[in-house]
Design a protein that fits this description.
By secondary structure, the protein is an alpha/beta fold. The protein folds into 4 domains: 191 residues, 3-Layer(aba) Sandwich (Rossmann fold); 171 residues, Rossmann fold (3-Layer(aba) Sandwich), CATH 3.40.50.300; 105 residues, Winged helix-like DNA-binding domain superfamily/Winged helix DNA-binding domain (Arc Repressor Mutant, subunit A), CATH 1.10.10; 69 residues, DNA polymerase, domain 1 (Orthogonal Bundle), CATH 1.10.150.80. It is 45% helix and 13% strand. It is built from 28 helices and 17 strands. Strands 3-4-2-5-6-1-7 form a 7-stranded parallel beta sheet, sandwiched between helices. Strands 8-13-12-9-11-10 form a 6-stranded parallel beta sheet, with helices on both faces. The radius of gyration is 27 Å and the shape is globular. Bound molecules: adenosine-5'-diphosphate and zinc ion.
Length: 593
């Protein structure tokens, strides 16, 4: 007997409707068809195998490398009334799990890839019945992905043992080569690939030039209120410093980086996983394996490597769909340092050129004056997206100044000095500063010597950087600047150049106005009481608070004030099992308040 997916969605998970491609993917898997699914983090991949596993007869096998998360997942499913278990190096009594599987008492069995690749496990699953094989973090199967794991190569053999059982591969990050590899290595027909849209409409993108980074960070974090967030820093030292600065401002903050002892890292991760408020200051070592849907902000103190990296890291915010913020604090020195790191690195020339181009693209994005979401979506292949209305530039068009004249002077100076000098020298020539180098090259005799004395050296350097980010200047390996493809139109006066007024003549002490995340709570008092109740329940059940109920569910209760079980069942996120378990408590809380 096959259950109806929409019915499982509402009765077990308490959700009213499928999101995006979920409905289509679930219908396919329920019907026994394979799927390779690429879906951004937070879009709801898990339901794409959990629901089919409940609809089809037998137990769903879920291969996942995120062992640390399995216990929480299993417990969360248990609270929703789903019979789930895990087999991995930390999961304890495997005898009991094996017995439960054999006697058909499991809906879902999570297994680590090492275990899944073993002969014993193959023999076990061959005794079936198995409803589906789900391969999570499927990019691990590909050498082209960023986290290749040899054990993943043995999963096809496992799935091949189960003819007629659908396989579903899931990942959030896969470029074209990785996608093709996933299909090939796992025996999924290429036409079964489903790529979901990459937009994360609930994330508000913001970027701000660093002026006094510590103050900006503290002001931003405080403006968000008592909510969970991540601050990504470029270095371990930076992460520690950020945590100290936040602590000094009475914000609870901890650190995560590869230099900490394993126990401390694990303890801090566990704290964060369960925190209802508090900030994790981390390097990118804090990455894969964060499964916290209620992260309300992700801050970057400095530029990551590429738009992909930035998008993946900011994508950890707002997986529950509620309003969240991605804030980038960056400065020209970040670009210089990152460029230096790449040029001094070990990679071959081709790779370096690729990385430099990636970095330049992100630097240009940081300075963009238009919608921030549009270039991100274009980068991921979307055609002609509309401005989003939910980024800093859309919400408040930045005041700009026309600096086309200055840009033309700068480009001419680069050209007339022979396209071989760095910006410092070009600025000296423009400002009419006859230093040794200028005299040695005879640049004081150029007709444009001194035509830019009205601007400071800092402004010229800033403008040079802007032109470089926009492709009007290019940098040679030795650091000299030459004209790039975008220079011509500017020199001919066809394309204007504008700068953000605030960046052009910065007032040194501007305060950061990070708009607070709108929680939109109808009844603050009731909401707080519900939160307090949830905290106790979470402690009693030893699960993170969001596993008991999401903020969105508590908010809905505070707004709807349900006084009966029927009314409570209409709250998103409350399925039959949660209604049974928490219904009386919640109704009593509403009645009291
Ligand atoms: P992913 O694995 O793709 O990063 P998850 O499967 O963890 O994302 O889902 C992210 C969040 O979205 C979870 O909190 C989940 O409960 C919620 N969610 C998923 N699908 C739906 C839906 N159809 N309606 C409401 N919430 C959903
Ligand atoms: Zn926008």
């Amino acid at each position: 007997m096959i259950r109806d997916p929409a019915d499982v969605l509402s009765s077990v998970f308490g959700f009213a409707g499928f999101r995006g491609v979920q409905g289509q993917v679930i219908a396919d898997v329920v019907a026994g068809r394979d799927v390779a699914l690429v879906m951004p983090t937070g879009a709801g991949k898990s339901l794409c195998y959990q629901i089919p596993a409940l609809c089809r007869p037998g137990c769903g096998i879920v291969v996942s490398p995120l062992i640390a998360l399995m216990a929480d997942q299993v417990r969360a499913l248990g609270l929703a009334g789903v019979r789930a278990a895990a087999l991995n190096s930390q999961s304890g009594d495997s005898g009991e799990t094996v017995r439960a599987f054999r006697s058909g008492e499991l809906d879902l069995l999570y297994v680590a890839p090492e275990r899944a690749a073993m002969e014993g496990f193959r023999q076990l699953v061959a005794q079936g019945p198995v409803s589906l094989v789900a391969i999570d973090e499927a990019h691990c199967v590909s050498q082209w992905g960023h986290d290749f794991r040899p054990d993943y190569r043995r999963l096809k053999a496992l799935a091949d043992l189960l003819p007629g059982v659908p396989r579903i591969a899931l990942t959030a990050t896969a470029d074209a080569a990785t996608r093709a590899d996933i299909c090939e290595q796992l025996g999924i027909a290429p036409e079964r690939l489903v790529v979901a849209g990459f937009d994360r409409p609930n994330i508000r993108y913001q970027a701000e030039a660093k002026r006094r980074p510590a103050e900006q960070l503290v002001a931003f974090v405080k403006a968000q209120g008592a909510v969970p967030g991540i601050v990504y820093c470029q270095t371990r030292k930076g992460a520690e410093l950020a945590a100290e600065q936040l602590q000094a401002a009475s914000v609870e903050a901890r650190v995560y980086h590869a230099g900490l002892a394993a126990e401390e890292r694990a303890a801090n991760q566990k704290w964060f996983q369960r925190a209802e408020a508090g900030v994790m200051c981390a390097t990118v070592a804090f990455g894969m394996g964060i499964d916290k849907p209620d992260i309300r902000f992700v801050v970057h103190m400095g530029l990551p490597k590429s738009i992909e990296a930035y998008y993946q890291e900011t994508g950890r915010a707002g997986r529950d769909g509620a309003a969240s913020v991605a804030m980038l604090f960056w400065g020209p020195q970040d670009v210089t340092l990152a460029r230096q790191r790449i040029t001094d690195g070990e990679a071959d020339e081709q790779r370096k050129a690729h990385e430099l181009a990636q970095l330049a693209k992100l630097a240009a994005w940081a300075e963009t004056l238009g919608c921030r979401r549009v270039p991100l979506l274009v980068h991921f292949g979307e055609v002609d997206p509309a401005p989003c209305g939910n980024c800093d530039n859309c919400l408040e068009a930045p005041a700009t100044l026309d600096v086309t004249e200055a840009a033309r002077k700068l480009l001419s100076a680069v050209y007339r000095t022979g396209q071989m000098f760095g910006m410092a020298h070009v600025a000296q020539v423009l400002r009419g500063a006859a230093d040794d180098k200028v005299l040695r090259f005879g640049h004081d005799r150029l007709s444009l010597f001194g035509i830019g004395a009205d601007l400071t050296e800092t402004q010229w350097v800033k403008l040079g950087r802007l032109l470089e980010a926009g492709g009007a200047l290019e940098r040679e390996a030795h650091g000299g600047l030459k004209l790039g493809p975008a220079a011509r139109a500017i020199l001919k006066g066809e394309v204007p150049v504008r700068v953000r007024a605030a960046d052009w003549a910065p007032t040194p002490r501007r305060r950061t106005r990070g708009p607070a995340v709108d929680l939109g709570v109808a009844d603050e008092g009731l909401f707080e009481r519900l939160r307090a109740w949830r905290r106790k329940r979470a402690e009693a059940e030893d699960v993170p608070a969001f596993v008991v109920l999401h903020d969105s569910a508590l908010k809905a209760i505070a707004a709807m004030r349900p006084t009966s079980r029927t009314a409570l069942a209409g709250v998103p996120g409350i399925g039959a099992a949660k209604l049974e378990r928490f219904g009386d408590d919640l109704i009593a809380l509403v009645a009291d308040g």
